[in-house]
Q: What sequence folds into this?
């Protein structure tokens, strides 16, 4: 571990390390014969396979049975995060509303501890302030004024309290824009770096907006606090919110976040996914469901059973990790889900989120989202951030296991995710590490759902702090204090390549926390080399000698250079819209002369007069004849929380060589060939009409 990368706090986050100094363990020069436990790792734990086949209702004693009549949902049995040992995640404890409460429910300390315990979710780290320096780009005709604190966001008082309990102090860049966009009722397409708070960016505003009118919007149902399964008549689930996730693990994780943010409200979250008995999930839905989270296959299964589920009350449809579900075998399921069933067109707000947004995902957005939807990009799409220390070492395939074992012995014992490319590799590596006395577990799609849930639960609790996973099975996992990600196998360019690498290493270094990503590079990974080098240079990290041939001009091996020289795919809709002839014309609202538009460009809390219909001049002496050549990109950057919001910048994407432009007060803006800017000092910038004097 690098001396400037202090990760001891993550080591101390493990239960057996809370009062231990990791520096006391033997250094890397110590004898290799020492056991993992002598290096500070917990004892390995064998699976209790009897628990997998045990039905919760058949537990040994009545004290072990979940108390369905308890308002807190907490029983005497061993639980973690409100989930009983041996139970399914869809039966996790939720706040049970009583119709006698009024508008706000009382606090339940036991449930609060289960939902908001420090080991259950990622809290902002020491480098959280660095997130505020990430550039934000808004594409499309609508401009959103960001918020810079949760208190100014207009949240429901209960939601504001839940945000505080969850440890969220300052909104991340994606949250700064998504919260006001949701409150204003816009559809959203948003991409942001992994670990940037995307889940909270849609849950917080959606649930907060529904809290004040839940009694009016929610479907009729029996009093949840007095509901008796098998005696009271079950109801059909009529959710107000539907959230779709590509993996079971991500679906249950979003469900956990929804359980926290629905605390002390009548909004009832449920999760449905494959691999577990459908009867268990039917029983949960029959108690009523306002927020439904699900995987595509199981969700369509329920949609096709109208007696159990209808989307006629749906107000919000959220697609998380959209790139994983579009252009895949789930295309037909996604079309069924996105249609909103029997909903009238225009009644649903659509929100799509991902760290990467390939072209087929953007096409889906254009088919279903409103024409005036918000498009937000935080940082470069498909990028990572500097809080993750990336290391790439060259390893012979036959030496991978030995190198991995030595690396684990020489790092502080902490939560670590090891990625492999196949299910067989996951099983084999799990056996190797377990037989080497490491506390490990593994997940992949061939494991039973109960095994997968048990593995994730044990990893979250720190009982088995080493998790071996295939890439898809761990997509979107957000686990507290993951110190290291190890790519035992780098992703092939045929199966995700650098985008998959981005998702994998994003399991550490989340929300301002620091982490390490170690990758084993072999001769089979040569085709990934150029993209890896650009990824390292983008965050100013050193390039190993064996990849030095891929360093572009303008950079050195230490990672220093001008990152603007790096050639990344823009992943923007601008060029596609221009090619399709969809550039904004002078009849579009955004450029109607002297028109005020509350949904328009807002840089410092003031709505600007809209731009005039004529285009920016391409040079100071020649006027563009194309009235459709309107500036399509507006970029807003914020360097620190306390800094005055800077001027937003507009430039024509079709004019690369430009001179000085002027706004309505004749203040100048210099745009050079490389689209750099200088000399702006006004809130808003306007194109000058070609028939006016001064050109």
A:
């Amino acid at each position: 571990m690098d001396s400037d990368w202090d990760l001891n706090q993550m080591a101390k986050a493990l239960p057996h390390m809370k009062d231990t100094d990791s520096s006391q363990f033997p250094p890397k020069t110590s004898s290799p014969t020492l056991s993992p436990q002598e290096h500070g790792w917990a004892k390995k734990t064998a699976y209790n396979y009897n628990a997998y086949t045990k039905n919760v209702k058949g537990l040994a004693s009545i004290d072990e049975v979940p108390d369905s009549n308890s308002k807190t949902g907490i029983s005497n049995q061993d639980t973690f995060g409100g989930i009983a040992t041996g139970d399914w995640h869809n039966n996790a404890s939720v706040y049970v509303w009583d119709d006698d409460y009024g508008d706000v429910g009382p606090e339940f300390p036991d449930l609060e501890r289960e939902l908001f315990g420090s080991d259950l979710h990622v809290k902002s780290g020491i480098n959280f302030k660095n997130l505020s320096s990430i550039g934000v780009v808004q594409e499309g005709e609508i401009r959103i004024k960001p918020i810079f604190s949760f208190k100014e966001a207009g949240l429901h008082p209960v939601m504001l309290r839940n945000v505080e309990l969850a440890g969220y102090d300052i909104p991340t860049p994606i949250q700064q824009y998504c919260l006001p966009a949701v409150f204003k009722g816009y559809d959203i397409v948003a991409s942001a770096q992994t670990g940037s708070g995307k889940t909270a960016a849609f849950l917080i505003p959606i649930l907060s907006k529904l809290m004040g009118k839940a009694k009016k919007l929610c479907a009729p149902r029996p009093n949840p606090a007095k509901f008796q399964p098998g005696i009271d008549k079950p109801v059909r689930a009529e959710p107000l919110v539907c959230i779709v996730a590509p993996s079971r693990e991500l679906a249950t994780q979003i469900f956990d976040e929804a359980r926290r943010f629905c605390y002390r409200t009548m909004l009832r979250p449920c999760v449905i996914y494959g691999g577990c008995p459908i009867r268990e999930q039917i029983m949960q839905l029959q108690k009523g469901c306002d927020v439904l989270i699900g995987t595509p296959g199981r969700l369509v299964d329920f949609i096709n059973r109208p007696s159990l589920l209808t989307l006629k009350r749906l107000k919000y449809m959220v697609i998380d990790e959209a790139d994983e579900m579009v252009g895949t075998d789930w295309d037909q399921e996604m079309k069924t889900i996105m249609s909103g069933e029997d909903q009238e067109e225009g009644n649903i707000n659509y929100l799509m989120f991902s760290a990467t947004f390939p072209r087929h995902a953007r096409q889906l957005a254009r088919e279903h989202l409103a024409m005036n939807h918000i498009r937000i990009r935080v940082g470069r799409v498909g990028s990572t951030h500097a809080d993750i220390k990336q290391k790439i070492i060259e390893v012979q395939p036959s030496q991978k296991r030995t190198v991995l074992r030595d690396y684990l012995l020489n790092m502080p014992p902490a939560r670590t995710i090891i990625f492999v490319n196949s299910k067989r590799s996951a099983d084999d590596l799990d056996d190797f590490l377990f037989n080497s006395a490491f506390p490990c577990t593994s997940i992949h799609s061939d494991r039973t759902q109960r095994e997968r849930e048990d593995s994730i639960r044990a990893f979250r609790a720190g009982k088995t702090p080493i998790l071996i996973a295939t890439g898809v099975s761990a997509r979107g996992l957000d686990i507290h204090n993951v110190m290291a990600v190890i790519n035992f196998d780098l992703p092939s360019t045929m199966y995700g390549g650098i985008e998959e690498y981005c998702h994998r290493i994003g399991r550490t270094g989340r929300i301002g926390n620091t982490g390490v990503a170690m990758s084993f590079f072999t001769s089979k990974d040569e085709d990934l080399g150029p993209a890896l080098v650009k990824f390292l240079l983008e965050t100013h990290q050193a390039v190993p000698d064996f990849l030095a041939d891929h360093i572009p001009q303008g950079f050195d091996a230490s990672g220093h250079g001008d990152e603007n020289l790096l050639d990344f795919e823009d992943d923007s809709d601008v060029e596609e819209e221009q090619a399709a002839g969809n550039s904004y014309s002078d009849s579009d609202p955004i450029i109607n002369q002297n028109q005020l538009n509350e949904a328009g460009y807002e840089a410092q809390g003031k709505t600007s007069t809209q731009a005039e219909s004529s285009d920016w001049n391409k040079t100071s002496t020649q006027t563009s004849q194309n009235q459709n050549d309107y500036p399509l990109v507006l970029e807003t950057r914020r360097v620190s929380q306390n800094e005055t919001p800077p001027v937003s910048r507009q430039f024509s994407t079709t004019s690369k060589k430009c001179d000085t432009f002027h706004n309505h007060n004749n203040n100048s803006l210099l745009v050079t060939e490389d689209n750099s800017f200088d000399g702006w000092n006004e809130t808003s910038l306007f194109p000058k009409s070609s028939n006016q004097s001064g050109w």
